[in-house]
Amino acid sequence: xxxxxxxxxxxxxxxxxxxxxxxxxxxxxxxxxxxxxxxxxxxxxxxxxxxxxxxxxxxxxxxxxxxxxxxxxxxxxxxxxxxxxxxxxxxxxxxxxxxxxxxxxxxxxxxxxxxxxxxxxxxxxxxxxxxxxxxxxxxxxxxxxxxxxxxxxxxxxxxxxxxxxxxxxxxxxxxxxxxxxxxxxxxxxxxxxxxxxxxxxxxxxxxxxxxxxxxxxxxxxxxxxxxxxxxxxxxxxxxxxxxxxxxxxxxxxxxxxxxxxxxxxxxxxxxxxxxxxxxxxxxxxxxxxxxxxxxxxxxxxxxxxxxxxxxxxxxxxxxxxxxxxxxxxxx
Length: 331
Description:
Elements: H1 4-10, E1 14-18, E2 44-45, E3 48-49, H2 53-62, E4 67-71, H3 76-93, E5 98-103, H4 109-118, E6 122-125, H5 139-149, E7 153-160, H6 165-173, E8 179-183, H7 191-196, H8 213-220, E9 226-229, H9 231-250, E10 256-257, E11 263-268, H10 272-277, E12 285-287, E13 292-294, H11 296-304, E14 311-316, E15 324-330
Parallel strand pairs: 1-4, 4-5, 5-6, 6-7, 7-8, 8-9
Antiparallel strand pairs: 1-2, 2-3, 10-11, 11-13, 11-14, 12-13, 14-15
C-alpha cells in the first residue's frame, strides 16, 4: 500500500464522512453521487445520515474506526464542516486517528493552515480532467508545496479515465507523495452522462467502465508511488471488511457473522414464556417488543421438534440502518 489511509481502507477501518453535496466550481460528467448526496447539505457517516455529532462518533465506534476519510463539496460551508469534524474525531480518538481529505479545489494557504490545525493529516487533490497534462505552473502545482509547508501530506486521487504522465512527474519531483487512481466506474448518479460521452460498462461487471484500465497500468502502473484501486477491491475493502468490523462489535452472543459481514439470527413470534418453559439459556435469545430473536440453529431445532410453530432466519447488515438482506421462513 502507498499511504496510511490506504492501509486502513484495506482493513475496512476507514470511516467515510461525506460533509457537503454542492460543487460551485465543478460539474464533472463522471461524478458518481446519487440523488441522496448530490446537491444536498446533508452529512453522512458511511451510509448513515448524520443528525448530530454523537451520530458521527457512534458510527466510528460501531466500526472501530482506525481513521476518517472526508469528502464532499467545495463551498466555504464544506470547509467549516470539515474542520469541525476533524476536531471532533481527533478529540475523541487522539492524534493516531488518521484523517485524509479528498477535494476538487486548491483552497489556498489559509485553508491549508486551518485544515492542518484542525487535525488533517493527508490531502488528496483531484484536478479538473480538462487540465490534466497542463498542471505545472498553475495553482495545482503551487498547492502541493503549500500543503506540505503547512504540515499536510499532499497527494493526488483521480478517476481512471486515462493515463497521464504528468502525475508521475509530480511524484518524481517530490511535489506529491503518491497518486491514487480509482478504476473508472459508472453509478446510478452518472451513467446517463457517461453513456453520452461514449463510455460503456465492462463485460460481466456491475460498475467498472470498459477501456482505460490497461492503458493506465501500462503507463503508470509500474511507478512505486502509484496505486490503482479496482472496483472489486473497493467493494471488498471499503464495504465488506467494514461490515465485518461492525459485525464483530455489535453481534450478540447468538448471532452468526457471515463472510460478507452480515449477521444471521432466528426470529419468531412465539410467546417468550415458551423459551423459559423449555429452559433455553438467556444468552441464546432476546425478547423484543413483539417477537423473540434467537440463535438461528436453535430456532430451527425447536421448530423441527415441535417446540414452537414457526419463525424465520434473518440475515441483515450490522450497520445503523440494519437493512435485511434475506428472510428464510421456517415451519
